[in-house]
Amino acid sequence: MIFLFYTAAIVALIATIAVIVSTNVVHALVYLIISLLSVAVIFFALGAPFAAMLEAIVYAGAIMVLFLFVMMMLNLGQATQDEEKAWMQPRLWIGPGTLVALLLAQLTSVLFTQDVAISPVEVGVLDISVLLFGPWLLAVELASMLLLAGLVAAYHLAKK
Amino acid sequence: MIVLILVATLFVGGAIAWASEALDARMPRVVALLSLLVSAVLLLVFSLNSGPDVGSPGGQWWILASWSWIPRFGIALLVGVDGLSLLLLLLTIFLGLIALGAAWDEIKERVGFFYFNLLWTIAGVVGVFTALDLFLFFFFWEVMLIPMYLIIAIWGHENRAYAAMKFFLYTQVSGLFLLMAILSMSYLHYVQFARFSFDYFDLQNIALVGSLQTWIMLGFFVGFATKLPIFGLHSWLPDAHSQAPTAGSVLLAGVLLKTGAYGLIRFAVPLFPEASDSFSSVAMTIAALGILYCAKVAFAQQDIKRLIAYTSVSHMGFVLLGIYAWNLYGLQGAVMTMLAHGLSSAALFMLAGGLQSRFHTRDMRQLNGLWAKLPMLSAMALFFSVAAVGMPGLGNFIGEFLSLLGAFQSNPVATIFAALGLVLAAVYSLWVIQKVLHGSLQVPNEYSNAADLSLVEILCYALMALGLVWMGMYPQSFLDVSEASLLYLQSLSGGAA
Amino acid sequence: MQNWIGLLPAFPLAGFLLLVLSRGRMTKTVAGIIGAGSVGLSFLLAVMISIEFLNSGAQPFSKTLWMWMQVGGLDTGFTFFLDGLTLVMILIISGVGFLIHLYSTGFMADDPGFARFFSYMNLFVASMLVLVLADNLILLYLGWEGVGLCSYLLIGFWYDNPANGYAARKAFVVTRVGDTSMAIGLFLLFSQLGTLNIQEILLLAPTQWSTGSAVAVAASALLLGGAVGKSAQLPLQTWLPDAMAGPTPISALIHAATMVTAGVYLIARTHILFELAPSVQLIVAFVGLATLLMAGFTALMQRDIKRILAYSTISQIGYMFLALGVGAWSAAVFHLLTHAFFKALLFLAAGTVILSLHHEHDIFKMGAMRRRLPVSFWCFIVGSAALTALPFTSGFYSKDAILLAALDHPSYGMLLWVGGVLGAFMTALYSFRLVFVVFFGKSHYEQRDTQQHDDHGAVVENTSPAMFFPLLILAILSLFGGLISVPVDAVFANGALHEEAHASQFLHALMILIPILGVMISWLLYGSLSYEKAGAHLRKQLLVSPLGGLLNRFWFSGWGMDKLYQTLLVQPFLALAQVNRKDIVDLVFNSLSYVARFANSALVLTQTGNMRWYAISLVAGLVIVIGLGVWR
Amino acid sequence: MESIPYEHGLILAAILFVCGLVGVLTRRNIVFVLMSLEIMLNACGLAFVVASSRWQHAEGQVMFLMILTLAAAEVAVGLGLIIQMYRRFHTVDISVLNEMKG
User: Fold this and answer.
1) Do residue A136 and residue D74 have CB atoms under 8 angstroms apart?
2) Which terminus of chain D is more solvent-facing, meaning fewer CB atoms within 10 Å of its CB: N or C?
């Protein structure tokens, strides 16, 4: 399990970095899918199979397919890719890079105060379902409202 | 009960006036007239048939009534009318009618909304003069300001947006001070008596010591003094007055300024006697300074309405002087000045408005020698200018004389300087008379066939002139009404401040 | 009859109201009848009241018409008080007032503002009567301000000319300075004595204040300020010569006979206060002395017939102040009475001259009017004689009394007397200069625009009955008014007319001879047949010498007082007003809005509209906040 | 059973989050920005799931579900906006949209 976790983590990291530095949208999307799938593996390794399933199906499946469709609709050609290359200048990365490095340093310095090991015990669908249809019912309803709103909004926005 | 009916009449009248515009553009003013007349009759009947209720606190309240409103925070609809309130209420309704007369032919667009605002302002003022619950008081304080803001902003003259915004900012910021002071009073009541209260009579019981009293008193003072206004906080007034339509100026100068003075008399001094006592020399110095300074600035103005506005500030100095003298002479003087200035300044603003509507300018450099052209208007202008100078025999003299007489006993130096204001008053008043009325006729050519006073105008001026003569020749009828209230207020502060 | 005392001012007031409300629609006849008639009724009533008053043993009498205001200890009624002093005053006001009203119906006959003129005049008479009848100082102040207002309105009566308006404003503002001083005096009196009733003050003051105490000095000095302003004494005399811009009857009534003597009346009325403050009383005497000399010298240099009379008025009131200052209260009132007669006469006669000469004021453009204007001539002779105090005219008796009283002053008697006599000499000089220049010598009158005004151009004396009768009566009174005894001894405990002269025969004779000497010198300089030659030569010699020229200019300008006030007060005030037209306080508050606006324009730069910039700022904020939490 | 250090999971989440952030801050192509946002959301979800394992409680996964829903809705709306933007401006450069400049 540990091996699985670290392998998946390394894959996820590499894929993610590839996403943000790639110039081709479709390539980036594929890297993103890889990243999401490896995160799904991590979920599995952490003992959250339900979350892993959802990650794979909804994120890597549905959402990314949506992205792909849109990319195809936009039909960004070689010109865009050249443009991307032109924009990709190292000095643009300095400012955000330092800021973000600072943030990461802060986060790690907070996180390393913990010293607890996780023993992956599977948290099953049942537990989640009990919570979802118990105390979190209202949140679920709200989420459905959100999806509905997203649906309507997307429909209107994408309309001519 | 009468207070509620009065306020309700005005509120509802305003709403109906607005709605009635849909029927006919002339309807709103008729509705406004009716509702003001009803209020006037109610008030007159009440003041003739009623008198102080001996059982009330101090034995001087004509009405004292209370209905529950928000009991959780000790907020009630507590209203009271005493002699002081009654005089100011009469003034308010009277000037409301005058303002209506001024607006009668002047307002031509969005008529319904105008009369709605007019009546709501008056209703707010009526509320301010009667509310004894400080929360309710603050509520009405705001109610009277916002319609007035709209009146200036919508129907004002060329620079109305600036003037209205200035008016709004000054009054809102000072209102914030007032609100903070009111809330801290209520909180202190909670601390000392374990319940919130905004009740005027409850708040009198709070024990306030030292600098806390001074700070809260200053909150009230700033709130009211901006409205009065005092020297230093006055600069909203010339703009607001000069840009407001005539009816707005009449109400502003005649009534709204008096709410500040009323607040000082009713709340700021009696609730904080010791702090006010030590503050009085500062206040009286400000008053004297304001009288002289604003008289001088008035002299330099070319816009006739700005000039009158500055003279208003100057005259309000006498009110401040009288209030902080805090003896019966000074207070009676302040009340008489409020009443008389209400009439005289309203009339002067109406005259300026009359000139503006006839010649489409307020610039004194373009108006000369009107006596030959408009003898009646000029005679009225002469009369009211002379009243403003403080000519004995007219109301303003009684007020200023008593104010100074009272002030002299507590602060002779400030009084002597303030008295010099009488000389400056003569300087600027006569200057206006000379510029506008005398000399050889000169008006903008395109309006050279302006007509003299109309019937409505004559009626308004005659009423105000009679009022001033009445106040000047037989002020006793007013002094008697307010005396009990003023004695009561003095007793609240332990006799003397 | 005394109970009807309230009607005294009510008649003219009613006349005023009628004339105002008619809004100029009355015919001139009706307006004239109402205007003059109402004052006439007042005069009749005043005569009846005085008969009753004198018959009943001159007991002071007061009547409250209604309660005016009652606030705490202030208890003021609309109350009229009548004693000998008031009686003299109401008779002068209504009597002389009536004559002048009558005269005005002729004088103003061609003026379009006829009704307006009479309405102001009536208001004036009403206010003046209230002033003298008032039993308390507030009511007196009402009359005091009322007459000031009417004076303002009447000086500026011909409002077309801005110069008149200027003169009117000057009169009002300058007197208002005095009035304010008086008002402060009222406040002081009230805060010290708790009453403003004159009789109560006079009773209380000696019991509460010791002689020469600071309060007494302050109170009487403040009242003196009011009196000085109203009576055009130094240093507030500058308004009166300019006040001649009004119609001549106004000058006669307001600026000679009645209003300007109100200061004298005030001091006489509150004389006990002044007795409590000897230093102030001495100031009164010296103010009077300085004024009478200053005005005498100035009058000598004037060219305008009315300005000469105006300075002469200032000078004569100076005599009254002198009398007040030395405690000769009755003498002051007596001189007030005779002065009212002869000065009114002189002004009305001057009015006739001016009217006949089509509003020519310059005396050096007249000359040889003796034959053309006989009535005016004789009136002038009588009036000037009385003014100069030639023996057996009315002025002689009153001025004599004043000078003798001045001589009696314990410490400064001789100084005051010499000054007064010098003043009398000057009076003779300038008043007969006026007579000689106007009525003798050669005619210098040039008819202006003769072609256009064929029938108006000629010099014709208007001797309609309305104008002739008042002149006649006043002339008689000026001659024989000295025989009247003023019933004021009961009012003034001490300071009654000095019956027996303490002066030596020599001094007394000198006093009588000096004015005659003055007349003779005046004749030498201006009147003799050699006027054109020797007199003119002599005068030229005087004027050409550097000192003479300087003095001429200095005296002509009224000792430069106008210029002084102009530079010291008026111009700084105007400059300050000019600078601060925008109101500096407003700038203070506006600067707040400038600060806000500046801050806005600075912060607006951060709003680039660039999303990545916003995101970066967001992250930076996040880093800072977390940093604050983590590395505290 | 071997155990994974708790902080390792969280640090992974943090690194992923930061990577996404860098993407948001540097990329001008709005499609990449949206993708980076997805990465960030996903990192948050990861953190929740890690926490859920740490406490052996299902609520963290419930939160992940909520985030998932949110991401779905966001992507739908975001893509709709991208389409609109591309129609109007014929570009996917986010710097063009700077009309909110003060």
Assistant:
1) no
2) N
Q: Is residue A158 part of a domain?
A: yes
**Other CB atoms closer than 10 Å to residue C320's CB: what's the count?**
31
A 10 A CB-CB count for C228 gives 28
> B430, C168: Cβ pair inside 8 Å?
yes
The rounded distance, in Å, linking the Cα atoms of B198 and B62 is 21
**Does residue C350 contact residue C434 with C-beta atoms inside 8 Å?**
no
Q: Point out the domain boundary residue: A107, A133, A148.
A: A107
| Contact status, residue B126 vs residue B6, Cβ threshold 8 Å | yes
In a domain, A51, yes or no: yes
Asked if the C-beta of D24 comes within 8 angstroms of chain C's C-beta atoms, the answer is: yes
pLDDT at C497 over 70: no
The answer to whether residues A74 and A145 belong to one domain is: no
Tell whether A67 and A130 lie within a shared domain. Answer: no
Contact (CB, 8 A) for A42 and A15: no
What are the tens digits of pLDDT across the range C362-381? 777 777 777 777 888 888 88
Q: State whether residue B477 sits within 8 Å of chain C by CB.
A: no
Handedness of CA D51, D56, D58, D61 (dihedral sign): positive
| Position A116 in a domain | no
Instruction: Find the helix or strand (DSSP H, E) in which B66 lies.
Output: strand B61-70
Tens-digit pLDDT profile for residues D72-100: 999 999 998 888 888 888 888 888 877 76
Q: ipTM score of the complex? A: 0.76
Check CB contact under 8 Å for C611 and D28.
Answer: no
CATH number, domain of A14, equals: 1.20.120.1200
Beta strand pairing status for A117-118 and D4-5?
antiparallel
DSSP string across C159-183: TTSHHHHHHHHHHHHHHHHHHHHHH
Residue B420 reports pLDDT greater than 50: yes
Residue of C506 and B246 predicted with greater confidence: B246
For residues A97 and A128, state if they share a domain: no
Domain-by-domain residue ranges, chain D?
6-90
Q: Burial letters for C336-348: b for 16+ Cβ neighbours within 10 Å, e otherwise?
A: bbbbbbbbbbbbb
- Cβ within 8 Å of C, B 403-442: 404-405, 408-409, 412, 415-416, 419-420, 422-423, 426-427, 430-431, 434, 437-440
- Chain C residues near residue A110 by CB distance under 8 angstroms: 630
Q: Give me Rg for the CA atoms of chain D.
A: 17
Domain count, chain A: 2
Whether A106 sits inside 8 A of C619 (CB atoms) is no
DSSP state of B233: S
Range of A160's domain? Answer: 124-160
Distance from CA of C587 to the nearest CA of D (A): 28
User: Can you tell me the distance from the alpha carbon of C24 to that of B483, in angstroms, rounded to the nearest whole number?
Assistant: 43
Query: What's the whole-model pTM score?
Result: 0.82
A117 falls within a domain: no
Three-state DSSP state, A47:
coil
A79 and A144 part of one domain: no
The predicted pLDDT at position C466 comes to 78
Burial, B445: exposed, middle or buried (Cβ in 10 Å; 0-12, 13-18, 19+)?
exposed
| A98 and A135 belong to one structural domain | no
A25 with A78, same domain: the answer is yes
Amino acid, single-letter form, for residue C610: N
Q: What is the enclosing helix (H) or strand (E) of C65? A: strand C61-71
Prior bond to C235 cis, omega within 30?
A: yes
- DSSP assignment string, C191-242: HHHS--BHHHHHHHHHHHS-TT-HHHHHHHHHHHHHHHHHTT-TTSTTHHHH
Question: Residue ranges of the alpha helices (H) in B301-327?
Answer: 304-325
pLDDT tops 60 at residue B148: yes
CATH numeric code, D6-90:
1.10.287.3510
Number of residues that this document lists for chain A:
160
Instruction: Identify the DSSP state of C109.
Output: T
Paired residues of B472 in beta bridges: none
